[in-house]
User: Fold this.
Amino acid sequence: MTEPASAIAIATNMERKPTDWSASSKMRQRLASRNRTEKMFQFTGLAAVVLAVFFLAFLLWSMLADGVHGLSWQFLTGTDSSDPETVGIWGALKGSLLTMAVTLGLSFPIGVLTALYLEEFAPRNMWTDIVEVSINNLAAVPSIIFGLLGLAVFLNFMHLPRSAPVVGGLTLALMTMPVIVIAGRNAIKSVPPSIRDAARGIGASPVQVVFHHVLPLALPGIMTGTIIGMARALGETAPLLMIGMRAFIPTPPSSFTEPATVLPVQIFLWSDEISQGFVEKTSAAIIVLLAVLMTMNSIAIILRNRFEQKW
Amino acid sequence: MFLIAILAAVVASFLGRRKAQAIGRASGGGGDPRSRMPALPGHYGAFLALCTGGPAFVMACIWPTISDTFVMRAVLASPVAKTLPAAEIDREAIIGEARGLADGTIEAAFNPASYELVKPITAAIQHFNLIGFILTLVLVLAGFAAGYLCIRRDFRARDRVETIVMVCLMAASLVALVTTFGIVASLLFETSLFFRQVPVTEFLFGTHWSPTTDIVPGQTNGFGAVPLFWGTVFIGAIIAMIIAIPIGVLTAIYLTQYARPTVRKWLKPTLEVLAGIPTVVYGYFAALTLGPAVREFALMLGMENPTSESALSAGLVMGVMIIPLISSMSDDSIAAVPASMRDGALALGATKSETVRKVLVPAALPGIVGGILLAVSRAIGETMIVVMAAGMAANLSANPFASVTTVTTQIVQLLTGDQEFDSAKTLSAFALGLVLFIVTLILNVIALSIVKRYREAYE
Assistant:
């Protein structure tokens, strides 16, 4: 008979004790202040995110507001001129295309082969370490340094033509290659060893293993890295200024060695124009550039989501 | 020439395969492994293709440079060239124009003497193009013959092809090394030329920057780079970081700890868009929208004659550009803190914010600091924003509304103006580039080693 009673007593005691404890006004105050801090902290975090997103929205909106009226068929197909009414970006766009063709043609094969070598074949020795360190550093070197390299080596030492897409492409290829190597190595690393073992087991040579099995499986990852690297190269301005791709180009370039300019440099040049009409055209060119870049990045994301394999 | 090499290689791969198949059939023993050929027909094809196309391809790559010197020599030896001016610069200008005329890239020459040269140049170019063509053909045929004779029953084509592939892989990996070496060598070389004219101490410790082409030895010449270093640090490491560090770290905390997964899934790529916007767009925004606004603000504060090119507008925009970098580095390092630490703190009754502030952030601090160092190195190497928004005046001032200039701005400024390359003015850009390269390199190395050690600590 007494047992349930004591149990109830204990239970009420247990219930009462914490109630008592939190009922003390000092504790309650403390809890309230802790909760306030919690709220404040969460609010600050949210504010930081909102601030960043707001800035992005503001930037995009101001470009759209300024430039959307400048977009027209004539603007997309015209070339640079001194009259803001008739300027177009086709010349710069074509320069960008030619430059990117050179960049892709050089940096993709070299980057993929380097990644394959470092990940699959390279012996662990000092040389490999030096190569690895230099790739990691190249990925972080400021882009303008690549411009100085292009100026000193390609123009002054090798006497390649000034302002030409081929020189711009070479310079940007050196800049993009480390990005592709790093992305490629990660993609290759994620291919499970069992694939290699299986291929080796049925008599494939190491080179066959890599080129028939590892590379195809790693390709989506490599492509994603390549697209991101190319998008970066496409938006790059400073190194191209160094090698003189800032000429006034009234006719679109038709070969890799003709003087050309690229879209970001064209934006830079127009932004320096005093005439008010160029404000609209500059913003319109920015809209085109951003549209291209965002398309490239979305393709990269889609590629990653669709082909990424979880092993 | 490239076309010949590639076409020949395609044809050769076909023929090599055929021959290998023929040998395989002739020997007959398809079933017995020992009597089979040591490689697949495709390997023989690839081997023959490499033999045929490889040398010719290399030749096609280097021939333009070789033939260039030959053409020059032939032109200078021609009777017309006797009339050219003796000064090398003039001569080269005329020859360059004549080349343009010969190629058809320029229509009218500035110097009438260049018209005379068009004929010998065209002749020489044609002459050496023909020689290059014949040489390529010879290489193709010789390579094909040698390779074709090699293909026999016991020839291990797979091993040969793979050796060549390995050599290609190694060569590709050396490109990065050569690039690094090229950067260091070219910067050091040009900088040493510069320091022959201007003392190192003046460059590193002088406080007056107004580069000129004429150098007076033994006197200060306006090559004191301290104002530039200050401007770079002020914009990139102070103003930009005041914006980017709090917003970046708080964003990372919010996204990892508070945001719901769906919100996070959308917000993260949105913030990464900030990192994908080209710097020239940021620069344009800073110069056109933010610059005037900052000037208005300075006027409101009662400043006299504020400029629209201020350290503040450039630094603000640069800070925004850096946010995603700091955010993603902090994100990674917070995620790398073991879950047991977080769970332990929560189990002791700490609120979420207390856990973040007293456990997660201190534990992730090395990673965050590493990210900040990387961000600083990005910011001080950033060019277009400061070129467009920070101005050209080399002021040694801590006033954020004043116009300051940076190392990168001056590099652009010095190298896009005049074309004369050997003056101290243009060479000083390379000295600035070397300083920038060394500083970013040190920052990156420190940052990466901190991050690496931190990751090891929790693994």
Summary: Residues 20-67 of chain A form one domain. The longest helix of chain A spans residues 25-67. The two ends of chain A are 64 Å apart (CA to CA). The mean pLDDT of chain A is 82.
